[in-house]
Amino acid sequence: MLKKVDGNWHFASENNLEDFAWSKLNNLFGLSPLKRQYRVYGDVCDILARDENSRLVIIELKNAEDRYIVQQLTRYYHSVLEEKPLQPHINYQLPIRLLAIAPSFHRHNWINRKYYKLKLDISFTLNPQQHHIYIQLTDLDTKKATTE
Q: Is the per-residue pLDDT at 145 higher than 70?
């Protein structure tokens, strides 16, 4: 699941990151999992979840820095609004939340975020401590950190 590269810990694959995030949605984010790898109009959303108010949350995961995560989330947002999947479980009267999880964000994401008005909530770092590896999620706006 994890590998050490140049002294730093990483998930061995993006699928390993997705497995981890899926299993910890409730603990880390207070979200209920709905679907993984959800196909909508030719795109694939990594994770669909809902919050305590039945608001849809679209989660995009990256195991490495990626300059197009904001554009991906924008396309997913548009497609999901058109399709409105999982209607019995989702209150589409509430705004859809977009959540990006990555170890770091490319400068272009910050520019895109500024003009698209999307909130990039979370980043992650892996912190090895003795015989355990912990994931630390940090809200990029408030700098509040959660460790699992």
A: yes
